[in-house]
Design goal:
binds zinc ion; 3 strands
Amino acid sequence: MAGKLRQAEAHAVAIQDKGTGLLFDAALLPLLNDREFATEFFIIAGLKATIGDALVATARKTELPLCPRCRKHEPLLESGLCERCDEVIG
Ligand SMILES: [Zn+2]
């Protein structure tokens, strides 16, 4: 299950309500769109969150390659490892 989730990238749109019915506050957008936070917190390969007129969420399989060391879908460097693993090994 976690493996399947790690292969997913998600896009979430929250309704901006004049009342208190926000799914999340706009002030959280920078945090939700921080790749390092979102991928660790939600255990997914990526997340794009925006404020819109309708509540929408989509998910698709990521095109990012699998890092052989940490088994996360991340952009890989010339070493064949993700940036984080490359720093640890290098
Ligand atoms: Zn890695």
